[in-house]
């Protein structure tokens, strides 16, 4: 392995791969180091469990008309479905299908909840999303559920200012063969050392020294794409230490919890169109949280349930059996107890307990919405952060990570050019 590069990139998720690809386009020497044994980070499509693609991480091309991965998917021949919403097409209350008018009322309540939080942020109010909601409203459990899904934290932990900055075109296109597969394919030519974690970055000298499990290399600039929760854990030692305002920004934008429970059936569920979104909760039992499913995704004999926030965190901590049991209860609400006999196999995700990620995606805490902006700025003159957390308008998304990686690569290239000119 060469021991000196123009730029070293830490992490081979969407941000790291896009940064590496852009640096190569600019003619720079680059090496990406990845602690895991695969590319993609939180973009992870696997087929081993069910014998068909399952996205353990990101799955939808959010804001598809402005999402660069849509063009990339077209270029690489990765199909996707054109959808305008992720909201449920079917709603089950206490195990019974709700009339269409009731379903529409519930979905509108969700939209109104987000609109209230966005309006507060647009007024410059950096308060908790919960503070602008009405917990006594009959649809609050669904509003709460969707805020947990999209921010990975509970409403009392979500900054309205940060949330209002997210640009949403309400186009959410599911990727047929997996978003993770798309991200990995786009970065297939980027040089990545797998199973090679970075443990120390020393920027005190004329060249930056990057220590990995496989040895030490040097670079003129470094791009760090590790998640905020990994950075906060101290898994990577920085010499000198990170500036106080950067540490504050990292702490202000922790990763929350979003997990999936997936089921394989003995065949597609009859009478259900491919890629149908269904939601269930019990108004008579508020302690039992809602859950939503994608049923028959792309016609496959599967259901994928989603959990978010503290509810997901607690279930994940209780173990896979607890996650499956809760989600199975939701399926029984929808299809009856006979659905249990049709379950062939299950799997669950565990992003919050993955030591290489430590969560789902970032969310700024109330009163700290502006802290995220520091993550978009250089650290000194030669080090840059990238990832979904380093995006002002597309945080929590793969395309936000992708765009931040490109921006960091171009900034790093400028540093290399200026230092080379001086030399």
UniProtKB/TrEMBL annotation:
Catalytic activity: L-tryptophan + O2 = indole-3-acetamide + CO2 + H2O
UniProt-listed InterPro entries: Amino_oxidase (IPR002937), FAD/NAD-bd_sf (IPR036188), Flavin_monoamine_oxidase (IPR050281)
Protein name: Tryptophan 2-monooxygenase
EC code: 1.13.12.3
Gene: pao
Keywords for this protein: Auxin biosynthesis, Oxidoreductase
Domain (Amine oxidase) ranges: 15-411
UniProt record, GO biological process: auxin biosynthetic process
GO molecular function, one term: tryptophan 2-monooxygenase activity
PANTHER family in alphabetical order: FLAVIN MONOAMINE OXIDASE (PTHR10742), LYSINE-SPECIFIC HISTONE DEMETHYLASE 2 (PTHR10742:SF410)
Pathway assigned to this chain's UniProt record: Plant hormone metabolism; auxin biosynthesis
Organism the protein comes from: Hartmannibacter diazotrophicus
Family note: Belongs to the tryptophan 2-monooxygenase family.
Superkingdom: Bacteria
């Amino acid at each position: 392995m060469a021991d000196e590069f123009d730029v070293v990139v830490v992490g081979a998720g969407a941000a790291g791969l896009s940064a590496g690809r852009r640096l190569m386009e600019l003619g720079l020497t680059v090496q990406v180091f990845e602690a895991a044994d695969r590319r993609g980070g939180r973009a992870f499509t696997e087929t081993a469990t069910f014998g068909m693609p399952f996205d353990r991480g990101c799955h939808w091309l959010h804001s598809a008309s402005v999402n660069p991965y849509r063009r990339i998917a077209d270029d690489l021949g990765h199909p996707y479905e054109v959808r305008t919403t992720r909201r449920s097409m079917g709603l089950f209350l206490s195990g019974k299908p709700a009339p269409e008018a009731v379903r529409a009322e519930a979905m509108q309540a969700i939209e109104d909840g987000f609109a209230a939080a966005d309006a507060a942020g647009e007024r410059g109010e950096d308060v908790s999303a919960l503070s602008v909601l009405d917990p006594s409203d009959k649809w609050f459990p669904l509003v709460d559920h969707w805020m947990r899904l999209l921010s990975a934290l509970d409403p009392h932990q979500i900054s309205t200012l940060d949330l209002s900055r997210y640009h949403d075109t309400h186009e959410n296109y599911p990727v047929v063969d997996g978003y993770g597969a798309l991200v990995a394919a786009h970065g297939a030519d980027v040089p990545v050392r797998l199973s090679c974690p970075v443990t120390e970055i020393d920027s005190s000298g004329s060249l930056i020294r990057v220590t990995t499990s496989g040895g030490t290399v040097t670079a003129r600039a470094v791009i760090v794409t590790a998640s905020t929760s990994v950075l906060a854990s101290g898994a990577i030692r920085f010499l000198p230490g990170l500036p106080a305002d950067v540490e504050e920004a990292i702490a202000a934008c922790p990763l929350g919890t979003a997990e999936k429970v997936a089921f394989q059936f003995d065949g597609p569920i009859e009478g259900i169109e491919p890629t149908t979104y269904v939601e269930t909760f019990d108004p008579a039992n508020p302690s039992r949280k809602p859950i939503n499913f994608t049923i028959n995704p792309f016609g496959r004999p599967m259901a994928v349930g989603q959990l978010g926030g503290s509810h997901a965190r607690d279930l994940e901590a209780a173990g896979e059996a607890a996650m499956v049991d809760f989600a199975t209860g939701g399926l029984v609400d929808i299809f009856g107890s006979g659905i249990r006999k049709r379950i062939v196999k299950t799997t669950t995700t565990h992003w919050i307990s993955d030591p290489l990620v430590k969560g789902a995606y970032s969310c700024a805490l109330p009163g700290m919405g502006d802290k995220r902006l520091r993550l978009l700025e250089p650290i000194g003159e030669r080090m840059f952060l990238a990832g979904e957390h380093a995006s002002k308008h597309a945080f929590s998304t793969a395309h936000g990570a992708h765009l931040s990686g490109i921006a960091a690569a171009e900034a790093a290239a400028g540093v290399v050019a200026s230092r080379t000119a001086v030399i």
